[in-house]
């Protein structure tokens, strides 16, 4: 079984940029790709310098080609476990050996149980104004449940409606001061016509017209396979070095607020630190020659 200097788990921008830095440092690198990028439903990526507007699939294909150009390898699969040493187990029974591991598996968006929401997610039902707010500028935007999110979206459009199931809104005066309409009611679903969002439906039969709906989902890190090793996200240090010796994290798996470009930067920084750690190990393991004069 081949032992790689580094196994990178996750082929998003964090994992790919880490693999690029490590292969250029002449390390043997294997990237495990589950084929489940968080932004797969989105038509375009935004906020990534020189790549603004590029479809996610194209961005990943470009990154993969660059990594392969420096000798990096890829394998399709989903990691189920890591044992100290390190052996990385895949769902299909494949076992990989690594001296160091970088986890860049990202997170998953846990959505509220609203009929039709999952089907629109990443299209016109979205979370991040910085990623997709510009595309809905000056258009009717609905915001669910989070008043501060509504205040933020006001930067992109003057037509903002805040939909909330409660009358208790501490930010009411701030919302009103910014011209944000408030609709009190419980969401029952989304109105979609011709594959476009047209409104937010309420349980009392009302429909709030909107062309986009923003909400903050529950972010869940994809780090389940690290927990048996004693991994504690709160103990992650500089450059993503975890409390499990030899394992680093980069991107959304360790920083849920990271966007594309900051995730790529985290991958780059973690890769440099991993290479430095391997240099130290290589030096410590080198035979010492005593030359007498």
UniProtKB/TrEMBL annotation:
Domain of life (superkingdom): Bacteria
Keyword Signal: no
Pfam families attached to this UniProt entry: Pyr_redox_2 (PF07992)
UniProt keywords, alphabetically: Flavoprotein, Oxidoreductase
InterPro entries per UniProt: FAD/NAD-bd_sf (IPR036188), FAD/NAD-binding_dom (IPR023753), Ferredoxin-NADP_redctase_2 (IPR050097)
UniProt cross-references to Gene3D superfamilies, sorted A to Z: FAD/NAD(P)-binding domain (3.50.50.60)
Residue ranges of domain FAD/NAD(P)-binding in the record: 4-140
Enzymatic reactions: [thioredoxin]-dithiol + NADP(+) = [thioredoxin]-disulfide + NADPH + H(+)
Name of the protein described by the UniProt record: NAD(P)/FAD-dependent oxidoreductase
């Amino acid at each position: 079984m081949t032992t790689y200097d580094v196994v990178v788990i996750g082929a998003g921008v964090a994992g790919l940029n880490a693999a690029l830095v490590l292969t250029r440092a002449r390390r043997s690198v294997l990237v495990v790709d589950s084929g489940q990028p968080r932004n797969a439903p989105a038509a375009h990526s935004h906020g990534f310098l020189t790549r603004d507007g590029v479809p996610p699939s194209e961005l990943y294909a470009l990154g993969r080609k660059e990594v392969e150009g420096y000798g990096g390898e890829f394998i399709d699969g989903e990691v189920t476990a890591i044992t100290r040493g390190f052996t990385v187990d895949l769902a299909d029974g494949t076992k990989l050996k690594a001296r160091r591991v970088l986890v860049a598996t990202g997170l998953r968006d846990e959505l509220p149980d609203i009929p039709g929401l999952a089907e629109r997610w990443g299209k016109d039902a979205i979370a991040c104004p910085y990623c997709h707010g510009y595309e809905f500028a000056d258009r009717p935007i609905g915001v669910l449940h989070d008043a501060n999110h509504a205040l933020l979206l006001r930067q992109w459009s003057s037509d903002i409606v805040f939909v909330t199931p409660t009358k208790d809104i501490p930010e009411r005066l701030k919302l009103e001061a910014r011209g944000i309409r408030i609709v009190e009611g419980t969401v029952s679903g989304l109105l979609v016509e011709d594959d476009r969002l047209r409104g937010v439906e309420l349980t009392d039969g009302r429909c709030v017209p909107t062309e986009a709906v923003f909400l903050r989902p529950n972010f869940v890190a994809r780090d389940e396979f690290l927990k048996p090793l004693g991994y504690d996200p709160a103990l992650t240090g500089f450059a993503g070095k975890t409390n499990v010796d030899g394992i680093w994290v980069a991107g959304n798996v360790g920083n849920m607020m990271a966007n594309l470009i900051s995730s790529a930067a985290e991958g780059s920084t973690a890769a440099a630190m991993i290479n430095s750690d391997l240099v130290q190990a290589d030096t410590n393991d080198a035979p010492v020659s005593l030359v007498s004069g």
